[in-house]
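Side project, low priority. Logging it here so it doesn't get lost.
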Amino acid sequence: MADLPIKLYFAYTSPFTYLAMGAAYELESAYQVKLRFIPYGVNIRQVYGGEIAERDERNRRKLRYLYQDARRLAAERGLIIRPPKKIFSARLAFYGGMCADDQGLFRPYADRVFERFWKRELEIEDPVALAAILAEVGADTGKFLSYVANEATEAKPRLKACFAEAEKDEVFGVPTFVVDGELFWGYDRVNWVMSKLDRMGLRRRSQSAYQAG
C-alpha cells in the first residue's frame, strides 16, 4: 500500500512549528505516511497589532506569554528559543527550503534553519547565509541563487501556489497538519493525528509489535 500523503504547513519563524518538527518526522517512522512540507506565511503584524513598538499592551502581554510557553516546551525537548527582536520575513528561507526539498535534503536544511534562527545565530533574510546552509547539507545552491536573482519569474509563483493551496485547504495558521482532508492546527495536535492514523490502520507493523510487547 502506498504511503498516505500528509501535508504540513509550516513557517521557519514560528516557534510552535519548530516544536512540532521532531514529532512530525517521527510520523514517517511510525506510520505508512509521507510528509509534504508546504510553506505558509502568517501576517504577524495583522495578528498582533503591527510592528513590535506599535502593539498595544494586551497584544504585548499575549505574545510574551506565548513565547514563555514556547520556551518552557522547548526546554523539555532540549531546544532553545530566543524571541526575535523584530518581525522577520521567511521568504528567502522558504526558497532555500524548496531547493533543498527538490534535492531530497529538506530535513537537514530545515533543522539547521530552525535551530540557528531560534538561537539568534542566523540572519534569515540574508541569502548568503541561507546559501551557506544549503552548501553545508550538500545541496547544489545554483537553483536557490537563481530563485533570488529571478524572484518574480521563478520563486514567487511557486510560493504563491503554496499559499493558494493553503487557502483551498482553509489553513489559517502554522503548524497545520492535513490528514485525509482533516485539519489539525498546533504543535500539540500530533497525538490526534496519530489517533486518526491508528484508526486508518496505518501504523507500521514493527511499531505495532513494539507497542504490543
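Brief comment: Residues 147 and 153 are 8 Å apart (CA to CA).
Revisit when time allows.
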